[in-house]
Amino acid sequence: MTKQDELDRLWSDPAHWTRDGAYRCAADPRMMVLKRVGIGYTINTAHRRSWVMLGGLVAISIAPILVSLALGRRIPGWFMLVTLLLPIAVAVITLVWLSHRDSR
Prior knowledge:
Structural class: mainly alpha
Strand order of the largest sheet: 1-2
Mean pLDDT: 82
Number of domains: 1
Order of helices and strands: HEEHH
């Protein structure tokens, strides 16, 4: 049995999926896997690094709000645009990179 066959077997086992579509398999080394229903990827919540990644993405998402609150009305418009777009770009690039890296 090849490594890909083993990963496919783990992914298709219903015991590793919750009713709401979350994937949890400690034996699967991938941080992200294809969703079982729908389009896209889901995070393997049993993978230790996935929680670090989620925490980082949440921190990056909250950063513009904290910067805006700290600067108040003194914040320039271009800076607000950058602080809103940068976290989105970082999150998208990170998730795309992880999905391609883990699918090999």
